[in-house]
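FAQ: What does a multi-protein file look like?

Like this. Sequence, then tokens, then the next protein.
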Amino acid sequence: MDVPSGLNATTGEILGSAIRANSTVTFAYPKTGLLKNEGIKRAGDIYVKDIGIFRPET
């Protein structure tokens, strides 16, 4: 949940080793690491679950 195990949530880089998920449920908003580098290949289908908080300003 949130990001596949072994994947950096910010950079999308693998931290040693990482699973390849069929789908990932992430909370509040998609983490940037799911959308770049290895995150694109490792996250599978991405589902965002609203938990009532706002995305931080970038």
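And here is the next protein:
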Amino acid sequence: DLKYRLPTTGYALRFDALDFAAYDVFVLKRPNAEASYSPVRLQEAEARLRTLSGEDIDRIERNLIAGLPATERTYNRETMRDALADYAAIGPAELRANLAWFLKEIVPAAEEVGSRMCIHPDDPPFSLYGLPRVVSTPHDARVRLETCERPD
């Protein structure tokens, strides 16, 4: 939820794993989405879906796919499924290798100009839409840092 109302009358971002699973499996109908969830989570998601109004589903969809960060493109269910299919062949090993290559190329250039690099941990620290994650645990973070560790 991009504008979750807090009891203090403020707002916050809020991730609801059941809403996400219900949307992913039963609304977006991502191919093989069921494999991303436990049988219990699938039952809970289906039960949640039955409690949602059409307006609730529209709001969840807007929050999850209508305007993804770092892009000006907007998505609908079909274009979102197509975009996810573009990444179907990229597993955790491929994503880690790609990130390692990027870090080895960019960190020295950043150091030359006095820039410091950082990486934000995966939030949430588990796969979404079946896509791999690379900084979900302290071990992941250590490995990423070691990738670009410099002797000096």
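Q: Is there any per-entry metadata?
A: Some entries carry free-text notes. For the entry above: The beta strands are 4-5, 11-12.
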